[in-house]
Amino acid sequence: MTSTRIQIDLASGPTDGVIARPSNEKAGVIVLQEWWGIVPHIEDVVRRFARHGFVALAPDLYHGKSTVDAEEASHLMNGLDWARATAEIAASVDHLRTKEGCTRVGIAGFCMGGALTVLGANAAKVDAYAAFYGFPPGGADLSKVTAPGVLFFGENEGFFSVSDAKAFAEAQTKKGAPTSVHVYPGAGHAFFNDTRPEAYHEASAHDAWRRTLAHFARHLQG
To answer: In the prediction, which pLDDT does 103 show?
Structure first.
């Protein structure tokens, strides 16, 4: 399975992204980057989803910039226009529906992209989402999220509020949008990133991936 660069049309002008297309499939997944940008790990996740039958698209929210340096990644994330990024996610969802012919679309994101996943589900009509170790800061308007979701954290999460995510999931489930939070003992932030041996937690990563595929199979393919 290969991935290629494509152009995504926005009201503010075109941007680009990385896409992988399986044959004869009409379910799509938007993949949202960590604070590093579109690095090989994210491109690999795009291809992983495609191998399971999803048209997978990662919009480049940093517009060509990426890094492996934590200080620079922090600078890039702090400089991100989150309103614009959310609009680009919504445009990417629309791209999968109108240009790729996807009848159902989900979002999956990691770290910064995990928080943007929930914001994207609030801004665009999606059918499911999965957020890995990321959640919007307190005060964010999430009232328009109607899709079922799964959220994953390690028990040693140091960047995002797991308690806020749990409260959100409980409220969502009560209003008819089933949402679950899974917290993995012994895991920390970025436990899914197998290119970072200091953070990767294999058992947790495998279980979260299994749950994500099952969630998307049910709501996007089933």
So the answer is: 95
